[in-house]
Write a structure and sequence with these properties.
By secondary structure, this protein is α+β, with helices and mostly antiparallel strands. It folds into 3 domains: 105 residues, Immunoglobulin-like, CATH 2.60.40; 255 residues, 3-Layer(aba) Sandwich (Rossmann fold), CATH 3.40.50; 119 residues, no CATH class. The strands form 5 sheets. Strands 1, 3, 5, 6, 9, 10, 11, 12, 13, 14, 15 and 16 form a 12-stranded mixed sheet that branches. A 4-stranded antiparallel sheet has the order 2-4-8-7, with no helix packed on it. Strands 17-18-22-21 form a 4-stranded antiparallel sheet, with no helix packed on it. A hairpin with a 2-residue loop joins strand 9 and strand 10. Helix 7 runs parallel beside helix 8. The protein is elongated. The relative contact order is 0.10.
C-alpha cells in the first residue's frame, strides 16, 4: 500500500528533478520521534511525493506529509518532511514533478551519525589490524549502512555534496574497506549493544573527513570569531583555510535530520593555535548543533592517541586537556551531551601517528555513547576520574576516584609532577619539567577508590607542585591496555589523562 504525500510546488527550472546527491538508494533516514527531511533541486512544475513503507514485513497504512518550495528565487529547491517512522521501517520514496520523477528505494529508518575530523577518522577499515577478518566479521551487519563523501573545499556555504563511495552496507567489502574504521566500529559495537538491550536499531554513517586538517577549517566563521581565531586562507592547501571544509563538507548536510556526531581531530592543532582549542573545539560542537537545529545532539570524540615513545614534547597532553575544555573529562559543564574514547594506551610503534587498534577505540566510543547518547546507565560514560585531592598529614597527596578501578604499575606509576609558579606547569612543553613519580612512591587502595602519591617538595621559593596522570605524548610503550588505571568492570574504560594544578607541597 502506498503512503501518499501530496502538495503543489510552483517553481521553474531547466534542469532535471533530483534529490540532493547524498540521498541515494539503500540509505538510512532518521527514525522517529524526529521527522526525516528529504530535499532536492530542479522541480519544474507541480510536485507530488509518494512513500510506500513496511515494518517487519507488514505494509503500513496511508499517511500524509508535505512537499514545499524552499527557495525564494524560484530556482526549484524543494523539501519533503515525512511523518516520524519507527526504527527498521523500510520505504520506497518517489517525488514526481510533471513528467519527471526522482526515486529512492530500499531506504531504512534508524539513527544517523556524521563522522568527521582528520586522518585518524579517515583511517579506513582496510588499514586496521586483522583487516581481512574484521571485514568478514562485519559482512552480516546489513542494518548498518554508510557513505563516504568527496573531499572538496569552498569559500562559500554549499548546498550539495557528492559521495565518493555510494551508500552501501558491509556485505559490499570493497566499499567497507574505504569506510572510516572508527566510525564503522563504533556503529558495529553500538548495534550489538542495542540488540542485547532488546532493540534493533539500524545505523546510517556519513564519513566526511580529511587528513591533516585543522579544527578551523571545519568551523563556522561566527564560531571562529567568537574564539578570537585569526583569519587563515591557504591557497596552496585550501583544506586548511578557515571554514572551507565547513562550507563544502558539512554545511550541505544541515537540513538532514540526524542523531549525533563523531569527531577525531586535533593532531593538526597541536602546533597551530593549540591554546585556542579549548574554545574552538567546544564552540564547533555548539555551532554544529545550532546549524543542524539539534541543540542536544550527542557528540562523541576520540582523545589524541600517540606518535613516538621517544618524543619529549608536551603538545599532545596539553591538546588532550583542551579537547575537554580543560576539565580533563566529559561530559562537563562546558561540554554537555559529549563523550570520548581515551586512546593514549593504543601505541602502534610501526604506524606512528595512525595506530591501527581502531577496534579498541570503536568499542570505547560505543560504551560511552550507550550511556551519554542513549541513556543506558548500565554502561559507564567514562573511565575512573580522580578528584577530591587532599594533602595528608604526612604531606602525601591523596586522590579519590569516582568509581572502582584496577591499578597496575608494571610499566610506570602513571603520575608525573612539576614545580613552578602559576601557569608554568600547565603550559610547559618540556618533558624535563615533568619528571615521573617513581612507582614505589604511589600506593593504590582500590577498596577505598583512592591513590596516594608520596610527598615531594619544590626546591625554589614560590614554586608549587602540580600533578598529572599520563602527561606525555606517548607515555606507554606497551601497544595496548598498558595504562595503570582502568575501570574495574566489564568495560574497563581507561582513566583519562588528568592535570591537578598548584596542589601545594607534596
Amino acid at each position: 500500500m502506498f503512503l501518499s504525500i501530496l502538495l503543489l510546488v510552483f517553481i521553474s527550472s531547466t534542469n532535471a528533478l533530483r534529490f540532493a546527491s547524498f540521498f541515494q538508494d539503500g540509505m538510512v533516514l532518521q527514525r522517529g520521534p524526529q521527522s526525516a527531511t528529504l530535499f532536492g533541486f530542479d522541480s519544474t512544475s507541480e510536485a507530488e511525493a509518494f512513500v510506500s513503507c513496511s515494518l517487519n514485513g507488514e505494509t503500513l497504512g496511508i499517511q500524509r506529509a508535505s512537499v514545499v518550495a524552499t527557495s525564494s528565487d524560484q530556482d526549484g529547491d524543494w523539501e519533503v518532511t515525512l511523518p516520524p517512522q519507527l526504527a527498521a521501517t523500510m520505504c520506497d520514496i518517489s517525488v514526481v514533478s510533471g513528467d519527471e520523477e526522482a526515486t529512492l528505494t530500499n531506504v531504512i529508518f534508524g539513527d544517523i551519525w556524521i563522522c568527521s575530523g582528520q586522518s585518524n577518522m579517515a583511517f579506513t577499515m582496510g588499514g586496521i589490524f586483522n583487516a581481512t577478518e574484521e571485514l568478514e566479521l562485519s559482512a552480516g551487519y546489513n542494518d548498518i549502512r554508510f557513505t563516504v563523501l568527496k573531499k572538496v573545499t569552498s569559500d562559500v556555504e554549499e548546498q550539495d555534496i557528492e559521495p565518493q563511495v555510494a551508500w552501501a552496507d558491509p556485505s559490499d567489502s570493497t566499499s567497507l574497506r574505504h569506510m572510516s574504521a572508527v566510525c564503522f566500529l563504533f556503529a558495529r559495537n553500538l548495534y550489538d549493544n542495542m540488540l542485547e538491550s532488546g532493540e534493533r536499531l539500524p545505523l546510517g554513517l556519513i564519513h566526511s573527513a580529511w587528513g591533516g586538517t585543522r579544527v578551523e577549517a571545519w568551523s563556522t566563521p561566527e564560531g571562529l570569531e567568537s574564539c578570537g581565531a585569526e583569519g587563515q586562507i591557504n591557497e596552496n592547501n585550501p583544506q586548511n583555510s578557515n571554514s572551507y571544509l565547513w562550507n563544502a563538507m558539512i554545511a550541505p548536510l544541515r537540513r538532514l535530520n540526524l542523531f549525533g556526531f563523531l569527531w577525531y581531530q586535533g593532531e593538526a592543532n597541536s602546533n597551530f593555535e593549540r591554546d585556542l582549542y579549548n574554545c574552538t573545539f567546544p564552540t564547533l560542537i555548539d555551532t554544529w548543533r545550532e546549524q543542524f537545529s539539534q541543540p542536544e545532539a550527542p557528540f562523541g570524540f576520540v582523545q589524541l592517541s600517540t606518535i613516538n615513545y621517544e618524543h619529549t614534547n608536551l603538545n599532545y597532553p596539553i591538546l588532550r586537556n583542551h579537547q575537554t575544555a580543560d576539565y580533563g573529562t566529559v561530559p562537563n559543564p562546558r561540554m554537555s551531551q559529549t563523550f570520548m574514547a581515551v586512546a593514549v594506551d593504543t601505541y602502534d610503534e610501526e604506524n606512528g601517528i595512525h595506530p591501527r587498534f581502531k577496534q579498541v577505540i570503536g568499542e570505547r566510543l560505543a560504551t560511552a555513547g550507550m550511556n551519554v547518547a542513549y541513556g543506558m546507565e548500565g554502561f559507564p560514560s567514562q573511565g575512573p576520574v580522580g578528584s577530591s585531592g587532599e594533602i595528608l598529614a604526612n604531606g602525601d597527596f591523596k586522590l579519590t576516584y569516582d568509581q572502582a578501578f584496577t591499578y597496575d604499575n608494571s610499566e610506570l606509576s602513571g603520575f608525573f609532577f612539576c614545580c613552578g609558579g602559576p601557569g608554568f606547569c600547565r603550559n610547559s612543553l618540556r618533558n624535563a619539567d615533568w619528571p615521573a613519580v617513581e612507582t614505589e612512591s604511589v600506593e593504590a587502595d582500590p577498596s577505598s577508590m583512592s591513590i596516594r602519591v608520596g610527598a615531594r617538595a619544590c626546591e625554589n621559593e614560590g614554586e608549587v607542585v602540580s600533578l598529572a596522570y599520563l602527561w606525555r605524548e606517548t607515555p606507554i610503550q606497551a601497544p595496548v591496555w598498558g595504562a595503570p588505571i582502568y575501570g574495574d568492570n566489564l568495560h574497563r574504560l581507561p582513566s583519562p589523562p588528568q592535570f591537578w594544578e598548584n596542589i601545594g607541597t607534596i
